[in-house]
Amino acid sequence: MRPTACDRIDCTPMRKHLAYLALAALLPVSCITEKNPPLATEYVTVGTACPPFVVSGADGLRFEAPKDFAGRTTLLVFFATWCPDCQAELPAINAVWSSVAQEPVYNVVAVSRGGAKGRYEQNPDILDRYWSEHDLQMPWYLDGDRSVYDRFASAGIPRVYIVNDTGTVVWQAAAPRLDAADYLALLRQYR
């Protein structure tokens, strides 16, 4: 039998416990396609009402659910700028926003999911810089403490929802890897 790390070092039960706690603290910040992503618990699923929330964004924008869903089919995406999966998804989301920005029956709400200070932190300066460096025009919103995201799922980004004009989730996916045309087709399908 192969020796384990605990065979080579002093792994008292307390040290094992502390090691597991340290590992558990890292799990909620993962991208979907990381090597060993945590299993996510879905709190919002197709057919359920979107939970109420308020997020603020660039240039003083504010989105308030469920009020701001009224009359619009909304593409709601949770992301973080440090997440490679999100980095791949954001250009398509931005293209969707560019296509529907002048259509009052559609909306795109991109919410940056925050995390711990340091690598996983998201703040207005980080978002403004990322938007500028990647030529994104859609507005961003910030959930710096994850209080909004944590109502939707326990882990994994990007996480994308389509919410109808009554505030009901009609489609959802984690790291869907769709192009702008596919997202537009979904928005129009659920209008």
Describe this structure in words.
With 191 residues, this protein is of the alpha/beta class. It contains five helices and seven strands, in the order H-H-E-E-E-H-E-H-E-E-E-H. A seven-stranded mixed β-sheet has the order 2-1-5-4-3-6-7, covered by helices on one side. Helix 3 (84-100) packs across helix 5. The longest helix is centred in the middle third of the chain and has 17 residues, at 84-100.
How do you describe this structure in short?
By secondary structure, this protein is α/β, with parallel strands linked by helices. It is built from 5 helices and 7 strands, in the order H-H-E-E-E-H-E-H-E-E-E-H.
Features:
191 residues, alpha/beta, 7-stranded mixed sheet, 5 helices, 7 strands
Q: How many E strands?
A: 7
Count, helices: 5
Computed structural class? alpha/beta
Share of helical residues: 25-40%
Question: How big is the Rg?
Answer: 19 Å
Topology:
Elements lengths: L4 H4 L4 H14 L26 E5 L4 E4 L7 E7 L4 H17 L5 E8 L10 H10 L6 E4 L15 E5 L5 E6 L5 H10 L2
Parallel strand pairs: 3-4, 4-5
Antiparallel strand pairs: 1-2, 1-5, 3-6, 6-7
